[in-house]
Amino acid sequence: MIKTIGRNKQWIDIHPNRKAGRIRKVVHGNRETAQRIVNSLYEQYYRGVFGWPKESTTTVAMLIDLVLEDRGLKGSVGEHDVANAALWNKLIGTKPAESIKGSYLKSLAKEWMTVPQKVGGRKKLMLLEAGTVNKRIGFLMRGYQLGLEAEPKLVTAKPVWHQLKENPPKSGFVNWPDFERLRTHQPEWVQVPSTIGHWSGMRLDEVLGLERIQVTFDHNKQDVTIDLRPGETKNGEPRFITLSGDPYEVLARWEAQTLQSHPNCKYFCHRDGEKTDSIRYQWERSCVASGLGSWKNPTAKTQSLKGYEGLTFHDLRRTGVRNLRRAGVDQKTIMLIIGHKTTSMFDRYNIIDEEDVRDASRKLRGYIQSKYQNGNSGGQLVDSASPNTPPNP
């Protein structure tokens, strides 16, 4: 029996027989919704599993643990995973997993993107971008998916969530002449991490965390090798990078100075023998001085209030990927050097610009001329000028 008892409220009363028991419930929705529920219950009765679904006792924290366990088995637990786990455990960890609805996630996403938040260990409050919100909520949704795949299932459904549209990947680069000019405006202790970042594509936290024992020099070959240990990289995997030329000269000179002035210093990037924790202020000033950045409010009293915009240290990482690709290094090797585990992440950094298009045109011209001149094109290439003149693409 179905009886309407209010706006979008229906009373259902089902009793197939004495053995099956009786179900009396208020359901929210129109009469059609109630009828579908009744039909589903009768289907259960005919299968011999009649009964109102029991509420799950699974908490959000249990799903979060599943994600960490899953990524731990794959050897891919990163610092962002730990941060996301702590975030969700603090927000809703003790709540029943099936009490979390899509509307809650939507409101949370709106709050993160419109109300300044404290992110990680940063003191400055900031608005979250769509990509960061997608990663946070994606971490939680992965927990629900693992809960559905568990045997027996830990949840019966997951919240409805549609990923937000993300901004196009950033495309900042710096060419070599501009980078050289930038370094002339930096103190030497900032030149060192900048040089490593430009030539290796390493992340800033990886660079500043380098210990001297991880940087080895071969003065005969005039190269320097940087050895990143397991657990010290964002993806948790070790990698090593060998550099020569300009980076060898800059880093070898710095190491020689360190041996004389601060021989007991543990870290390669240091300031007067103390570990370099940040180069933000010096970076911003040098970028503005070299024309690679600017102040939004140049008359403000403090540098933080001036509001910097322009080249970032992470742009050196994009520059590293582009330079390696242009140098003809294969994609797999670039991914190993840079530390990208997926081609999708590599593609976000592998941005094609106008110079790449010109280079493609030059290569095409050279290919066609070579095929024509060698006479093995498989078909004669001609243009309106002369049958003996290579075409001009």
UniProtKB/TrEMBL annotation:
PROSITE patterns noted in UniProt? TYR_RECOMBINASE
**Pfam families listed in its UniProt record:** Phage_integrase (PF00589)
> What SUPFAM superfamilies does the database record attribute to this sequence?
DNA breaking-rejoining enzymes
CDD domains recorded: INT_Rci_Hp1_C
Q: Which InterPro entries match?
A: DNA_brk_join_enz, Integrase-like_cat_sf, Integrase_catalytic, Tyrosine_recombinase_XerCD
Q: Where is this region: Disordered?
A: 370-393
Do the record's keywords include DNA-binding? yes
Could you list the residue ranges forming a coiled coil in this record? none
Q: Which UniProt keywords apply?
A: DNA recombination, DNA-binding
Gene3D superfamilies linked to this entry: Intergrase catalytic core
Record-annotated Tyr recombinase domain positions: 150-362
- What family is this? Belongs to the 'phage' integrase family.
**Protein name (record):** Phage integrase
Organism in which the protein naturally occurs: Nitrospira defluvii
Lineage of source species: Bacteria, Pseudomonadati, Nitrospirota, Nitrospiria, Nitrospirales
